[in-house]
Amino acid sequence: MIEGDLQKGQKVVVIEDLISTGKSSLNAVHTLREAGVEVLGMNAIFSYGFQVAIDNFKKADCPIQTLTDYETTIEIAVKEGYLKKDDINSLTEWREDPANWRQ
To answer: Which domain holds residue 31?
Structure first.
């Protein structure tokens, strides 16, 4: 899981494209920590903002920053006319429980 020349004690920030539950991202963090690397946190391009991810990162004591998130994307999509305000309810319901969502 680790590529490159990392030394014990080295400080790193993990870069990720997408955070949903955080499981795979935090696997990388755990692997790095087990190798003796100090993980300062994670930066990601996008996060759905699922509560499970927030809880997982908190439990792992791994700060996270994202460039954008689900709510911001929805706001901009409505503002730019890609979505109608009527679509927001459906998208909000999906985000609250994607595994059981039915349209």
So the answer is: 13-96
